[in-house]
Amino acid sequence: xxGLPEPLVADALLGGAALLAVLAAVLLGRVVAGPTVHDRVxxxxxxxxxxxxxxxxxxxxxxxxxxxxxxxxxALLNFLLSVGLSxxxxxxxxxx
Amino acid sequence: MVTLGTAAVLALVVASVGFTLVAVVGFYRLPDVYARAxxxxxxxxxxxxxxxxxxxxxxxPGETLKLALLALFVLxxxxxxxxxxxxxxxxxxxxxxTRGRPVADGGIERGRDGTDPDATDGGTAWxxxxxxxxxx
Lengths: 96, 136
Description:
The complex is a heterodimer of chains A (about 100) and B (about 140).
Chain A: H1 7-33, H2 37-62, H3 66-88
Helix pairs in contact in A: 1-2, 2-3
Chain B: H1 4-29, H2 33-59, H3 64-91, H4 128-132
Helix pairs in contact in B: 1-2, 2-3
């Protein structure tokens, strides 16, 4: 199964990606509501992970392997964002 | 004609959306940052892994290595990032939710469980060292 997947598979992947994108958008409500900065960071981390998955699913639906490189880099940046913010929000010290 | 691969992709995508929905519901229903990180680090990670498996089935064997790397990375970093954030929350003195002592501003449904008349500090004066001793 190289190149474009068959239409039913592509529809399933795009539909799943759309639902996951909607769930990520819903989760932005928790980012706004907080109440602490830690709630926001955890929620942003989950939104980022969901977007990584959406990128991978869209790449599979379109038959574009290049999307996977984008997803890998986005996952790396997402992890660095969470660890960096959690180190920034307290005094200098080790959280990991 | 639904082939085995198509059925596998459908099942994996449906399961992934289901687990992610559980994580999002948990984010809105659970009372404090620790419980929310619990929803984030387990349910969301499993949902992401199932979706990556669906993409791997759809791509075929040519891209398995890259998707396996992505899955391994998500599996390792999701719970690790949640742990780091929760640890910084504990170091910042945010107390965990307990029955009868709701945390201050502890959720969207504020005051749902009533307030504790004894918790004059609003439940914020708490430190990790008080409970466990500083083991670091």
